[in-house]
Amino acid sequence: MRLKHLTAGLLALCATQAWADAQQSIRQSLDQLNFPLAVTTISETPVEGLYQIQLENGRVIYGSGDGKYLVQGALIAVNDGQPRNLTAEVEAKAIGEVINGIPTKDLVVFAPAQPKTHITVFTDVDCGYCRKLHEEIGELNELGIEVRYAAFPRAGTDSKTAEVMRSVWCAEDRQAAMTRAKQGKSVTRVTCENPVTGQYELGAQVGVQGTPAIFLANGTLVPGYKPAQALAQEAIANQ
Q: Which domains does the chain show, CATH number per domain?
């Protein structure tokens, strides 16, 4: 019995050392590449010799234990014909933490009296489907969905749209200014310290490629417009 316990302990020690060596090798490889994003954690995967590299923006890549190979893509677990996208599950959780960490004071929030859950929408005031979604803000609120807008001017932070969005964020009444902008009406030009550029950069980091980009409370991305009833059902189911 003592030999069995000793063997188990040695195996655990070897596994721990292998994991530590893999972390060091992977981090060295990323440093050599001047990788642009910080690594938050490196952990084992169900695949022997393959390690999960969690990035600060919530995204995941994979690396071999010797650090010589990096892999970007989805890791799918095949469970008796019932596939699970392990990468998507991990990324959604991490991205949800990033998105939900944006202070609400830096967002344009349309909140119901008794919210059931919330969505965070990276939006552009000139985007047609963003405007269509905004027309349903009242219905979403009635269904218990708090809508939090983050800025994502598609033409970039030096565009006229970005200038309008800065005025929205600097307005005394952000909700009214956002509604005017989404209706194609003029917004009084105002300047202040604002989060538009930071939110645009964050959106790019978490994979926003178009607007509206809707993140549910659990970090799941709903790309593009979805009618209020369907969106509310999905938001409540994925809190």
A: 2-97 (3.10.450.70), 107-237 (3.40.30.10)
